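Much of our argument rests on the idea that a fold can be written as discrete symbols. This step matters because it turns folding into a mapping between discrete strings. The record that follows shows the chain in one-letter code together with its fold in token form.
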Amino acid sequence: MRKIITLFLFMSVCSGFSQSEELDSLSIQLAFQNQDSLKVDTSLKLIKLLYETNDFDRAIKYIIESEKLSNQLNYHKGIAEVAYYKALIYANKNDYINAVNGYNKSKALYRQLNDVVGVAKVNNSIGLLEIKRGNYALGLQYALSAIEELEKRNLTNELKLSYSNLAKAYYNINAVDKAIEYCLKAAEIQEQLNDTKGINESNSYLAELFSSRKEHRKAIEYYEKILNSKNANSDSIRRMVYPKLGGEYLKFNDFDKAEKYLVKGYNLNFRNKDKSSFLTVLNNLGELNLQQGRLVLAEKQLTEAGDIAKELNNKKELLRHYKLMKVLDSIKKRFDRAFEWQREYYTLKNELSKNSANVNLKTNNVAKLELDPDFDREETKSKNDIKPEPTNNAVVSESKQKFDRFKLIFYALLAALAIVSTFLILIYLKRNSRIKYTQELEEKNIKIQLQNEAFQEQTKHLENVNNVKDKLFSIVSHDLKDSLSSINGFIDLLKDGSLSREEFDNLIPELSENANSASLLLFNLLNWSKSQMHSLEPKPSLFDVQEVFEDKIKLIEQRMENKGITLVDRSMRDFAYADRSMFEIVVQNLLANALKFSNTGDTITISNRISNGSCIISIADTGVGISKQNLDKLFKSNTFTTLGTNNEKGTGLGLSICKELIELNNGKIWVESTPDVGSTFYVKLPKSKPTA
């Protein structure tokens, strides 16, 4: 069992990063879970993950909270699972009583829920616990009762543990064939799971099992498999394998190979002070030197082996030590000492045989019972102790009367069952009729509801279209009318000859400003109305950003000169992937805004750069800036506008159009501004076609 727990620890470390991510994910799910039963289920997943990583303290905290919530909800599945994991943790902490109580509680709940897999998992865990405590016969019975269901469901992790422990249990009751069978099954599953450490442990156990059957070539084959595995360079593996492999070659009198592996094993175990494996090396080296006539060296090694065997209470190796010492002293003609060794040998052998016989006796007694892990041992014992009483005529008569009575009761129950069944069938038919009627009503209600929703959606759409129309007429009748009226006024004065040449020249900038304003207003109105009608479709392509800047600067050069604004062009040749015409609209609007809110002597700076594979364009001005309160109103669908530094008017549509056009091209627009310092508008666009 210790090897299996070590294996789990190794696996947990290897998968630590992914498990940490999974823990974080489950914790977030738990925090946002609304339904209480779902909270319990998510908490159980966390508990399972924490248990698998041996984080028992955190697991217990979740167990306590889940247990409270499950009891409040009367959620039997949750209570069963919580009791099961609590029992597993008690078992890992060697708290046998609490572990068994927890297993029994969870099994009772699983039975109520008809959860066959849950019952099988609990029986398997009880079996492993009993095997771990040395109760091999009882552990076998529980584990075997669970195997069939676990195999049917292909629960590989549970099966891997169960097979390994069944192999250990069968070996300890001298059922070597069965032990080999289950060990091979464990190795097969470990290969499926790519569990290298588990495979090595199974191969080591198989080698020992074949060695116990004196199939030494098979044993050598499995030990060599371990040495050829991925982590064969590990000192811990070689320390364990070399002494045993050397011992197997010794059985064939292949002294060269035996000495080669035993010397390697001696050096490794001596350096690492691994007394258990060092004891095996010393006994095997003692036997090797004994067979080759190096008696002094053999005696030294065997004496040291005897001391370690007594210290570790390793009776198997101590028995071997007594046998080899008897042979050594017999060769040296020290027959009195050889007689002492022989007496020690048979005393210990009889003790071990007695223990083995007791285990076999318990196994045979348990084997006589049915494979039902819920048997009560004391009840079974009391039933077995009842002696049959002698049969006579009175007893036979009484038995017949009892049989007739039971027969009568049986027929009465059968008649009652028929009546009840008829009644239940009628209820069932009536209920089905009511359910069918209810379903028809529900279907009709759903259809009516869908029709209402469609009508509401259509009404909402018409209202939106109507609002767009109202806004459009409002802007056209107010702002566009003012600009056109102003232009018409200039033209009328010119026609009447009311203006001199000098006065006309002075008014040309204002006329140009009004014409530009009307042009930009019409431009924005057209695009805004198209966006509101959902008819804007981008046609992206790769284009040079600097070219767009050059074109748009030409349109505002005269206005900038008239207003006394300086333009700083820091743009460079770079490409963006977007709809060029839409980008031109955005640049024209942003330049117009910068000009509108700049005073004489201010500066407008345009630039672009590359960041994380995107093209970022910026248009900065040293104008009046934007207050924090007004920043929140920008880019909204509602119109928001303020007068420029020369009382220039606007529609409030420009920035909302910019935002929509940029987002249609998978981009982003934002602004940074400080009042009385200036504003900088940023546009971020992709440099290539975005992946889906």
In short: Residues 137 and 366 are 7 Å apart (CA to CA).
